[in-house]
Design a protein that fits this description.
By secondary structure, the chain is α/β, with parallel strands linked by helices. It is about 40% helix and about 20% strand. It has three domains: about 80 residues, Winged helix-like DNA-binding domain superfamily/Winged helix DNA-binding domain (Arc Repressor Mutant, subunit A, Orthogonal Bundle), CATH 1.10.10; about 90 residues, D-Maltodextrin-Binding Protein, domain 2 (3-Layer(aba) Sandwich); about 100 residues, 3-Layer(aba) Sandwich (D-Maltodextrin-Binding Protein, domain 2).
Length: about 300
C-alpha cells in the first residue's frame, strides 16, 4: 500500500511552490491563505522537514522543498492529463476550435458546414474569444492573430493580413478627391486602441498615400471590428478593413478595393499544444483549416 500524504496537502504545496505565495495559491485553489498554510504545516509534520522559508510577501522553497516540488508537480500534471483524456473519451466526438470574435464571425462560421460535411460523426464547437484560451484543456486548436511567437505551442502559419480602404461599389469611389469627401469608417482596437502595435488606422494609410483629408479621425466609429465591416457592406462609408475579413465580399463584388495601397499587418496562425498534436480532434481541425485556407 502506498504511503502518501493527503492529496489536498500535496496540491496546496505544489500551488504555493509554483506561485511562491500562499495567497496566490489560495486564490488558485479557491480557499483561504490560512487553509493553504494549514495544509502545508500538515505536510511538513508528516514528512518531518521544513518545506518553505516564510518571508514577508512571499515564500521560498527550502532544499527539501526544492527536491519534492518537481515530483509533485509532474505527478499532478500527469493526473490532470489522464482525467482530461478519460473525460474526452466519454463524450461524443467534439472538436473545439477557438479564434478571435471577428475571424470567427467573418471567416470560420460561414465555413462550419464544410467540416460537418467532411466529418458527419463529429461535432464542431467554435469558440469565439479575444482572450487567450488554454490549448491543453479548453480547446483542441486555435487560429490566432499576432506575431506568431507562441512559446511552448506548435505554430503553423496560415497567411499574413493587410488593411486597405474598401467600400460598396455604389459609392463610386475612384480617386483621392472622391475619398476626401467620403465618410471614413473606423473601429477601436480594444484596450489601448490606437496604441496597440497591431492597429492599422486611417491616419497611417492616408500618410502613406499622400492624401490629406479635413478630419482623418472623423466619420463613423465603432467599438468593434465586425460592426465596422457591416456598415461598410451597407454602403455607409469607406472602411479601412482587414482584407482577410472581407475576402469573400471582395471576391463576390459586394465590396471593392479602390486603391492598391495596403498596410501590412500581423499574421494568422494555426496553433495547438504539442501534447494535443495526436488527438483525433486536433488532427481533423488541422486538416480542415489548412484545406479551407490554402493559398
Amino acid at each position: 500500500m502506498r504511503k502518501l500524504p493527503p492529496l489536498s496537502a500535496l496540491r496546496a504545496f505544489e500551488a504555493a511552490a509554483r506561485r511562491a505565495s500562499f495567497k496566490l495559491a489560495a486564490d488558485e485553489l479557491s480557499v483561504t491563505p490560512t487553509a493553504v498554510s494549514h495544509q502545508i504545516r500538515l505536510l511538513e509534520e508528516l514528512l518531518g522537514v521544513k518545506l518553505f522559508e516564510r518571508q514577508t510577501r512571499k515564500v521560498r522553497l527550502t532544499p527539501a522543498g526544492q527536491q519534492l516540488f518537481p515530483a509533485v508537480r509532474d505527478g499532478l500534471d500527469g493526473m490532470e492529463r489522464a482525467v482530461q483524456a478519460v473525460q474526452r473519451a466519454g463524450r461524443t466526438n467534439v472538436a473545439t476550435l477557438t479564434s478571435t470574435v471577428a475571424f470567427m464571425a467573418r471567416r470560420l462560421a460561414p465555413r462550419a458546414g464544410q467540416f460537418r460535411a467532411a466529418h458527419p460523426d463529429w461535432t464542431l464547437r467554435l469558440d469565439a474569444s479575444d482572450e487567450v484560451v488554454d490549448l491543453d484543456s479548453d480547446a483542441d486548436a486555435a487560429i490566432r492573430y499576432g506575431t506568431g511567437n507562441y512559446p511552448g505551442l506548435v505554430v503553423e502559419p496560415l497567411f499574413r493580413d493587410r488593411f486597405a480602404p474598401v467600400c460598396s461599389p455604389s459609392l463610386k469611389l475612384r480617386s483621392a478627391e472622391d475619398l476626401k469627401h467620403a465618410t471614413l469608417i473606423h473601429f477601436e482596437w480594444g484596450a489601448g486602441a490606437r496604441d496597440d502595435e497591431r492597429a492599422r488606422v486611417w491616419r497611417q494609410w492616408l500618410a502613406q498615400a499622400g492624401i490629406e483629408v479635413a478630419d482623418p479621425d472623423g466619420g463613423l466609429s465603432f467599438t468593434d471590428e465586425i460592426h465596422a465591416v457591416q456598415a461598410t457592406i451597407a454602403g455607409q462609408g469607406v472602411g479601412l478593413l482587414s482584407l482577410t475579413l472581407v475576402a469573400d465580399e471582395l471576391a463576390s463584388g459586394v465590396l471593392v478595393q479602390p486603391f492598391s495601397l495596403a498596410l501590412e499587418s500581423f499574421g494568422y496562425d494555426l496553433v495547438y499544444s504539442a501534447r494535443a498534436a495526436e488527438r483525433p480532434a486536433t488532427r481533423l481541425l488541422r486538416e480542415w483549416v489548412k484545406a479551407a485556407f490554402a493559398g
